Amino acid sequence: MQAPRPGIHLITERLSPAQARLAFALMQLTHPELTMDLWLAYTRRLAARHGVLIARRPMQPHICGAVCFHRDRDPFGHILTAENLVACDLLYPEHVAASLAQALRNLAQQLGCARIRLLQPPPVTTIALPPATPQPGRAARSAEGGA
Asked: Which of 93, 94, 135, 137 could be cross-linked to 87 through a Cys-Cys bond (beta carbons 3.0 to 4.6 Å apart)?
């Protein structure tokens, strides 16, 4: 990722309870099935080693980037796992992503993590469908060896 462009200043910080509703639309971009109630319940359970980092412009409440994180342990030690990074800016989304990446590096260092693992949802969103109802005659054809 490129370093933030001169003159484009972003503030990266942990999501506060007051900002939770503002970040909802961004997080819903990664998971369209996410509801406001589920999101708010998630943000209320955040602790020191779990949370959401956000990016915003100075003097503006609108959030232009977010990433969820938690500290894990693997065979090699502590690792910071970052999920669902979203950067939404009309002109410079790459700078929002770069600012969040730098904030993750700083946080990993503060939490004693030597590595960062970034998990992103697949580009195609999966949707839970109701159980299929058998079509009349379909099972009979299959049993006979037909299509």
From this structure: 93
